[in-house]
Design goal:
10 helices; single chain; 75% helix
């Protein structure tokens, strides 16, 4: 289990995929012998927030404790999710688009159009998913943080309608793996596949952080605010 006394270098050795996670938390490389506690202090991040996010990525089947959820910062979690949205749309999606274009260059026009349309439809789906969180969910949580009521909205509504945006990537993965013509470069195909596998895994953890961290934290806030208003 990851603890505040663990050195950042040891954290990366534990799971190199945490490099991207640390970047979205605002922790860059060149950290020397700094520990997680040092990094959190330098970046103004709650240690509990850092541990929740990293444990979710590094530990399969991780279930955060109620104590850790209660001590973490909702604002930190939202900032991380917001930074992740930017990373996915501006970096991951653009890199995948260019790689697919290069991969499909030798194929005929009809095949290129099919793959391009599939990708663009998926990208639009992901953008809509993130836009709902940015435009509805995050402002709602910020209002709760300011002590305001939700005007009929609740985090349960988000939870009920929360879809997994990594599922359609499995279809794209199968297209690249099973159905592209032989003229497509095999090394480039492997590279694109590896990128899709990594993105699929990353998005899966992103969803788990929303479901297993953000939702229960906001639920606690809602109950606390309801109790406060009930006492008035």
């Amino acid at each position: 289990m990851i603890t505040p006394s663990m050195k950042l270098a040891d954290l990366i050795e534990l799971n190199y995929r945490l490099l991207d996670v640390m970047s979205r938390l605002g922790v860059g490389l060149g950290f020397g012998e700094h520990t997680i506690a040092d990094a959190c202090r330098n970046c103004g991040i709650s240690e509990s927030s850092f541990l929740l996010i990293c444990n979710e990525y590094a530990c399969n089947g991780y279930v955060p404790s109620g104590e850790l959820l209660a001590s973490a910062s909702v604002a930190d979690i939202m900032k991380y999710l917001h930074n992740s949205h930017i990373h996915y749309m501006d970096s991951e999606m653009e890199t995948l688009r260019l790689s697919l274009r290069e991969l499909m260059a030798p194929a005929d026009e009809a095949q290129r159009k099919v793959v391009e349309k599939f990708f663009l439809d998926y990208k639009a789906e992901v953008k809509n998913h993130f836009s709902y969180e940015e435009d509805v969910v995050f402002p709602y949580v910020e209002a709760l943080l300011a002590g305001k009521s939700g005007n009929g909205y609740s985090i349960a509504q988000f939870e009920e309608n929360h879809s997994n945006i990594d599922e359609k990537l499995n279809d794209l993965k199968n297209i690249v793996m099973k159905y592209l013509p032989d003229v497509c470069d095999p090394l480039l195909r492997n590279r694109v596949l590896y990128h899709i596998f990594c993105l699929e895994e990353d998005l899966h953890h992103h969803t788990l952080i929303e479901d297993n961290v953000l939702v229960p934290m906001v639920d606690l806030m809602e109950k606390g605010l309801a109790a406060e208003y009930g006492e008035r």
